[in-house]
């Protein structure tokens, strides 16, 4: 793997060409787009603004070389820029949390379909909130809803609080540092969770961006990937109000096993919703 180009050329087009070649050699997908995103970040503009730039000044060139080197070492783009888009929100991210992914938006879509009244006075709980993406997306869609997000990692809980503030939702979203839902008083109309679900033996096979940089604790679901779901099956019946919904993210091929756990806990499986790739991604259960 090559390091970032030195010395950096002054012509932006040439810089992008060389960066694209290096990213392609590192087997990074969409290398030209990635090079442009890195250049825009270094120039402190967006992709549209980058089109109006022919050269970078010395400071921007140095920033570009630095962030390119980070990306060539497979640091995720979101960690480099410090932000990511999720649903309708612009969220801060850090290595303390997983990076929100488009697949997780499947859970938001499922909630909107099963709870069509946008003016409902919902009480929402998001277990393992991470960046707060799920809870905040729901609060953004339901203006009269209030919710709690929990995370075992104090840095993640702090980041979720920051995101609640930057999205203007802090008055309706409380972020707590605790294990699962310890000390949280129900009942809730909606409980969300994107728990760790990767079988421990599969962690090493994930993309290098994930393996080397994203927090293993937020990924590792134990020997069979189901440890977190067993814990959720124990607590969900006590957290949900009568008629309340639980919406959980699933890993590949986990729909049947997790559904069985939830049925054994006395919950009704309402839907297994596929993501855009056709993988069963959102499990909807009802008390």
Automatic annotation (TrEMBL):
Domain Release factor glutamine methyltransferase N-terminal per the UniProt entry, residue ranges: 14-82
UniProt keyword annotation of S-adenosyl-L-methionine present: yes
PROSITE patterns attached to this UniProt entry: N6_MTASE
GO molecular function terms listed in the Swiss-Prot or TrEMBL record: nucleic acid binding; peptide chain release factor N(5)-glutamine methyltransferase activity
Coiled coil: none
Protein keywords: Methyltransferase, S-adenosyl-L-methionine, Transferase
Binding site for S-adenosyl-L-methionine: 128-132, 151, 180, 194
Uppermost EC category: transferase
Catalysed reactions, as listed in the record: L-glutaminyl-[peptide chain release factor] + S-adenosyl-L-methionine = N(5)-methyl-L-glutaminyl-[peptide chain release factor] + S-adenosyl-L-homocysteine + H(+)
GO biological process terms, semicolon-separated: methylation
Positions that bind substrate: 194-197
Enzyme Commission number: 2.1.1.297
Positions of the Methyltransferase small domain: 110-203
Domain of life of the source: Bacteria
Xref: HAMAP family: RF_methyltr_PrmC
Function summary: Methylates the class 1 translation termination release factors RF1/PrfA and RF2/PrfB on the glutamine residue of the universally conserved GGQ motif.
PANTHER family (UniProt xref): HEMK METHYLTRANSFERASE, MTRF1L RELEASE FACTOR GLUTAMINE METHYLTRANSFERASE
Family: Belongs to the protein N5-glutamine methyltransferase family. PrmC subfamily.
Name of the protein in question: Release factor glutamine methyltransferase
Taxonomic lineage of the native organism: Bacteria, Pseudomonadati, Pseudomonadota, Alphaproteobacteria, Acetobacterales
Gene of this entry: prmC
């Amino acid at each position: 793997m090559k390091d970032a180009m030195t010395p950096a050329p002054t012509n932006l087009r040439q810089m992008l060409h060389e960066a694209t070649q290096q990213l392609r050699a590192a087997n990074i997908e969409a290398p030209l787009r990635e090079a442009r995103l890195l250049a825009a970040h270094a120039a402190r503009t967006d992709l549209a603004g980058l089109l109006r730039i022919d050269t970078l000044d010395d400071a921007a060139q140095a920033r570009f070389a630095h962030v390119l080197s980070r990306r060539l070492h497979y640091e995720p783009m979101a960690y480099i820029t410090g932000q990511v888009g999720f649903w309708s929100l612009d969220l801060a991210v850090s290595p303390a949390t997983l990076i929100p992914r488009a697949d997780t938006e499947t859970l938001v879509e499922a909630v909107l379909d099963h709870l069509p009244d946008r003016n409902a006075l919902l009480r929402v709980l998001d277990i393992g909130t991470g960046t707060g993406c799920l809870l905040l997306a729901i609060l953004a869609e339901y203006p009269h809803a209030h919710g709690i997000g929990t995370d075992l990692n104090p840095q993640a809980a702090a980041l979720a609080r920051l995101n609640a503030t930057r999205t203007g939702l802090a008055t309706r979203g409380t972020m707590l540092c605790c294990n699962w839902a310890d000390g949280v008083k129900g009942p809730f109309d909606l409980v969300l969770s994107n728990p760790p679900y990767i079988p421990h033996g599969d962690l090493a096979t994930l993309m290098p961006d994930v393996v080397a940089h994203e927090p293993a604790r937020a990924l590792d679901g134990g020997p069979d990937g189901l440890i977190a779901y067993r814990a959720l099956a124990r607590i969900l019946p006590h957290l949900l109000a009568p008629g309340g919904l639980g919406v959980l993210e699933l890993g590949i091929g986990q729909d049947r096993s997790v559904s069985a756990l939830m049925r054994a806990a006395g919950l009704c499986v309402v839907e297994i919703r596929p993501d855009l790739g056709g993988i069963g991604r959102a499990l909807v259960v009802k008390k």
